[in-house]
Amino acid sequence: MFQHAYNGYLKYAYPYDELRPLTCDGHDTWGSYSLTLIDALDTLAIMGNFSEFKRVATLLIEVVDFNRDIDVSVFETNIRIVGGLLSAHLLYKRAGMELEPGWPCTGPLLRMAEDVARRLLPAFNTTTGMPYGTVNLMHGVPPGETTVTCTAGVGTFIVEFGALTRLTGDSVFEDVALRALESLWQRRSYIGLVGNHIDIVTGKWIALDSGVGAGVDSYFEYLVKGSFLFPYPKLMEMFKGYLPAIEKYMKMDDWYMWVHMAKGSVTMPVFQSLDAYWPGLQSLLGDTEKAMKTLHNYHQVWRQFGFTPEFYNIVNSNAHHMREAYPLRPELIESTMYLYQATKDPFLLEVGIDILESIEHSAKTKCGYASVKDVRDHKLENRMESFFLAETTKYLYLLFDTDNFIHNTGAQGTVVMTTKGECVLDAGGYVFNTEAHPIDTAALYCCSAEKTADDDSVGEMHDNIDLLELLQLDDVDDIRDIENDLDSIKRENTRRQNRKKMKLKVPFSDEVLKKAEVLNDVDEVEAEDANIDDDETVVEKLNSDSIDSSSQQYWYQTKSTPQDSYSEYSNDKRSPETKTKLQPPTDTTSSTEDEKATESSTQPIDWTHDNAQHFPGRLFTCPAQPFHSRLSVYGEMFVDD
């Protein structure tokens, strides 16, 4: 599927942004910089096509120039271009590319990502810190640019911009992203919800629809994923601050409706195809039971039509008028992939097969895959968005390729030497941006000021340790005596382990051997000092059905990361010289008695620490918004002045 669409783009559409799969030609959509090629680059590496990855990466470095007089979406350029280049940069070594000294803290694709992001920064130069939706890559915010943008267009930068700060050492990217998040948080309603569109100059909500889907979705997503990537537990606190209101007002029978942000009353009893990312987000937080119930609802919609329409009327069980399309979106398969990794429930593989077969049967053309214009009759539209290669095919592939390196759990990694010292990379823990571009969390730490501070602390501690005093010894000769004793202990442990193996040389059934592996894992720590049972006792123990289930559960628990571990990672260890103290936007709302009653739940967040220094402000500019963000989700909830 991926290869057919990718080859079609190269043959018929390159160097245009996207393929038109019905007429087999190309057209520019988001900026005229071969968008599909950049968006698909890391998918090539994930699928193991390293030779094509090398060819395309070299081509992009040689021919793509972002110094162009064009207006672009800040949001789309960030998630697709900046995110795609960052991800491909971090996959350089795995793909066998020639590395610069100091990689992953330097490299040509990283410099390209930084160049694009700097061209987006002028959009953030607002009194609220919330960015404009559009920016010119050469001249900044266009004259007359609208001040209205969607919530996701404000709050979807911390993953890419935070990664840039860690990899380049320039705090400006992370600072503007955090300030935008803070500004939205301050403007939540008193029942704990945000609207759909906001005026980024006045801070006034323009569209009061509140939901988890279109116009808001990746804002919630980035609060969670930002807390995974960076030492800011308040990001998760913010998400958890929204969650009670989402569950109270939006959730009905495992669907999530659209409600009024201030009243909580239902405004649209619809499911949007973009809502389908939500079960995946729930699974990342460990709430797999709720996630499975909601995903089951969404899958039933898919089974009804063969696709999910943009809007599905829950009351009438039908596609909403004028919202019947399915533009090859990835959200349902994204959640399916996350949930399968969390539960291994085979039902989820059946969901994946349903999605795969529907797209292959109804959307395939001779040169690619076409968007579905109407899910009721499967008529097609002449467009294949770049996210089909960046997200939809990638998540499908990862659902079925359970041994892919993306799913690594830390059991293996690659040791590299950088200008920041020794690092272990590619060990798992990848975090996908909202365009499915994976970010290696270890690489961000490797290049960050936090690692430098940690290494300095370890070095200082090492230098200050008096080993003789610590061990209460008089001279170095005593240390040699201890080393000899340790060698004796090691030899004795080896002898005991060999003796244990000899004792276990009896013919066991396959079932017994499997139980032996469990017991061996659980009892490994105690094996050195335990007395070995005689053969009959061992056989009796292994053949019994009374293996302690709690000991198995112990390993399941200890091998997974507790959800609260991110909230415990509290202190930002960057030196004061490398970060800017963020100034929260001024809250322009007036105080009332009701406001005072809810003051404890609406306190602004202080992102900084006592030792942070304030640096002079810079000229901030920012990226542009996609066309669909210029409209309300539905229209009725726009507020008149």
From TrEMBL:
Residues annotated for Ca(2+) binding in this entry: 434
Which cofactor is essential here?
Answer: Ca(2+)
Q: Indicate, by first and last residue, each region the UniProt record lists as having compositional bias (Polar residues).
A: 544-569, 581-591
UniProt keyword Electron transport, yes or no: no
* Residue numbers annotated as active site: 76 (proton donor), 217, 310 (proton donor), 331
Q: Where is the composition biased (Acidic residues)?
A: 526-537
Q: What is its EC number?
A: 3.2.1.-
The annotated region (Disordered) lies at 526-611
Bias (Basic and acidic residues): 570-580
Q: Which family does it belong to?
A: Belongs to the glycosyl hydrolase 47 family.
- Descriptive protein name: alpha-1,2-Mannosidase
